[in-house]
Predict the 3D structure of the following.
Amino acid sequence: MDDAQKAAWLSQRCGKLTASRMADALDVLKSGKPSAARTRLMHEILAERLMGDSVPHFVNDLMRWGLEQEPHAKDAFEVATGSLLVPCGFVDHPSIDNFGATPDALLDGDALVEFKCPQTVTHIAWKLARVVPEQHRPQILAQLACTGRTRAVFVSFDPRVPERQRLFMREWAPDRAEVEEVEEGARAFLAEVDAMWEALTCN
């Protein structure tokens, strides 16, 4: 993604709830109160709406590593599966305003692909568990909700381990009820954001 493409992408998602932050949007404490992460996300969205620009986020070394390795992960996936990945930009939800997603890639048919390039210890844990990690399911469910697709392939990639162990791939076709639950969570979250917006801008 060049600078112009990145600027357009940031503009498309400015002031919206995106799939990458879906876990934070759903993060409510046992007491019923919102978590600090959920509240901060609301404030970030409000800030973006006020400024008309994206709130910058700190990128640590692990995050930078993941971004740098994603193209290699995609190449390794195509070689291993013989399937060609289709690029995908930002996709707005068809009926929920200010809700959207940017899948890492699409596959022919009805699938999307989510790539992660984590620490080696995390990659090993995911390979041993052999399931889509719980912490990434809200993001994938939100991507399915926005794109209308019904299947996802979760991919973990680590080039630091022997070649045969570098990829972990797990296909996931969640029930429609799971997607709808995330959509309801998005609606509730955005309704709260809209109420905050009214309170913030009424004077």
Q: What stands out?
A: The longest strand covers residues 151-157. The mean pLDDT is 93.
